[in-house]
Amino acid sequence: MKWVIAYGVAALAFGALDACWLSFAGSRVYRPALGDLLAADFRGGPAAVFYLIYLCGMVWFAVRPGMADGVGTAALNAALLGGLCYATYDLTNQATLARWPTWLTLVDITWGSFATAVAASVATAVARRFGGA
After folding, report:
1. 8 A C-beta contact, residue 26 and residue 35
2. Torsion-angle region of residue 97: left (phi > 0), alpha (psi -120 to 50) or beta?
3. How many alpha carbons lie under 13 Å from residue 46 in its C-beta half-sphere?
4. Helices (H) and strands (E) in the chain, counts
5. Contact, 6 vs 67, CB < 8 A?
6. Contact 124, 8 (CB under 8 A)
7. Distance between CA atoms of residues 97 and 20, nearest Å
8. % of the chain exceeding 70 in pLDDT
9. Which of 29, 39, 40, 91 has the fewest Cβ atoms surrounding its Cβ within 10 A?
């Protein structure tokens, strides 16, 4: 049950954070920087697949060790995971697309590290409290 709790809480926390970020940054950060590189309409299917997979990684690589060693371990591992995953995406785009600014890469990596760390920390704390450690 603790893993269901951890996954569900991570999904809620990361989903809420990312929804707030994308609502704010979509028109203010990404659209001005990327313009016509962005799809005209949001594609929910690929986003859902990303979140399902990413949350599994968050639970395995951050929450699971955090269940044994504490929220600080979860936060550190999650920040590293978020930075690594977002760097992979952003640096690949920067290497292959004609227009992908360095500042956007830095902002996105920072966001990925922060959001992943917060979501995994909350998920770990709740799962430890209500799912048993």
Report:
1. no
2. beta
3. 4
4. 6, 0
5. yes
6. no
7. 27
8. 98
9. 40
